[in-house]
Write a structure and sequence with these properties.
Blueprint: E1 15-17, E2 27-28, E3 33-35, E4 41-50, H1 62-74, E5 90-98, E6 107-114, E7 125-132, E8 138-145, E9 151-154, E10 160-163, E11 168-177, E12 189-194, H2 199-213, E13 218-222, E14 225-229, H3 238-245, E15 249-250, E16 257-261, E17 266-269, E18 278-282, E19 285-296, E20 307-318, E21 322-326, H4 332-340, H5 346-359, E22 365-368
Parallel strand pairs: 1-17, 16-22
Antiparallel strand pairs: 2-15, 3-12, 4-5, 4-7, 5-6, 6-11, 7-8, 8-11, 9-10, 12-14, 13-14, 16-17, 18-21, 19-20
């Protein structure tokens, strides 16, 4: 019986097919490109979380003792490393994203992750931790109580209960920017970087900008970027120029692509995929293995022992292959109808799509995740 492959509720395995081809929809330039140099910068620091209820790192861990002793020395307390029992302290890595043009005084969200043997960071407080960029300069300092979305508990007999991941916590607005983020929007040239490099889309973006600012202000050297020469009237006002360009609408081009996740059986077919004339045969091999347990009893007075003997039966059946002919599918909906006639399951479509592409009937990029 033919199965309706587009009904996702029929199984956990699913095939998702885009809607039938429709007039292309224009997107804002703001959603298609980024301005070169205007990007986030990653920050990282090594710090200590204190105040844990005995769920910190191993008390003998040098990774905790040494920075804790150094911290106490800076605060005017000299303690030998060997005298520290750091069960309530955990060594952590602190990470954050520094947005473009961040200014001193702005606050950032921070992620704190245990690096040692701590069982939980719940209830802990991060001690002031410098956050450095790739240039090793300090751009922010993080400190504050952690938020952990879960809990972990252990009993004296070894029983335990745990919810969610408790060795990672967050500090909403827990870091303060101390140094301005690198970046500038000065100069007489602006480079727009496409989020999805494509020759056709880059050309359409250049045409839209030329229509707004005047012919010849753009150039396309490669499919990944469009260079804009800042007109004389906009010199010194590049930020305002970017704001002027962001609402421009462009119709992006999309490649014919099929994405296959073989682990879950999910298949996504792009709207540009077309199927040429082809004859498709599909057959399946079913193998059923049944195993039962039986007991072999020894003879009377034999001195033997009862033995468990497995009994296994194997049944193999092969479906009759069916040959289905399609004269070609000009739209995704027609492609779905043609494949639906086979009655194949989503996992079977992985092999079918690959075979169609090899035969030349499917002109699309097949991406396997």
């Amino acid at each position: 019986m033919s199965h309706r492959l587009l009904a996702l509720a029929t199984a956990a395995l699913a095939i998702t097919i885009a809607a039938p081809a429709a007039p292309a929809h224009a997107e804002r330039l703001k959603d298609l490109v980024d301005v070169e140099g205007v990007r986030d910068n990653q920050l990282v620091g090594y710090g200590l979380v204190v105040g844990l209820a005995g769920t910190g790192d191993d008390a003998s861990s040098a990774a905790v003792r040494r920075p804790l002793a150094a911290l106490m020395k800076k605060l005017g307390v000299t303690v030998a490393e060997t005298e520290l029992k750091a069960k309530n302290v955990a060594a952590v890595l602190v990470t954050a994203d520094l947005p473009p043009f961040a200014r001193p005084g702005q606050e950032l969200d921070v992620l704190v992750s245990s690096t040692g043997s701590a069982k939980s960071l719940a209830g802990g407080t991060l001690i002031a931790t410098p956050l450095r960029g790739a240039d090793l300069e300090v751009y922010a300092v993080a400190q504050g109580p952690l938020t952990v979305g879960g809990f972990a508990a252990e009993g004296a007999t070894g029983s335990s209960r745990k919810k969610n991941h408790v060795t990672v916590g967050r500090l909403p607005e827990g870091a303060t920017v101390e140094r301005a983020a690198p970046g500038a929007l000065d100069g007489d040239q602006l480079t727009l970087v496409l989020r999805d490099a494509d020759f056709t889309t880059a050309r359409r973006i250049a045409e839209a900008i030329d229509a707004a600012l005047g012919a010849g202000v753009t150039s396309v050297a490669d499919p990944g970027a469009v260079t804009v020469a800042v007109p004389r009237a906009w010199r010194g006002k590049v930020a305002a120029l970017v704001a002027e360009l962001e609402p421009l609408e462009v119709v992006p081009d999309a490649p014919a692509r099929i994405v296959i996740d073989e682990r879950t059986g999910t298949i996504v077919v792009g709207a540009e995929v077309r199927l040429g004339a082809a004859a498709i045969a599909h057959g399946g091999l079913h193998v059923t293995v049944d195993e039962a347990r039986a007991v072999s009893q020894p003879g009377a007075l034999s001195g033997g022992a009862s033995v468990e003997v497995p009994e296994t039966t194997v049944d193999v059946q092969e479906d009759d292959g069916r040959l289905v002919y399609t004269a070609g599918a000009p739209t995704v909906a027609d492609l779905a109808t043609a494949l639906d006639a086979l009655g194949a399951k989503p996992r079977d479509l992985v092999a079918i799509f690959q075979a169609l592409r090899t035969a030349g009937a499917l002109r699309a990029e097949v991406v396997i995740q």
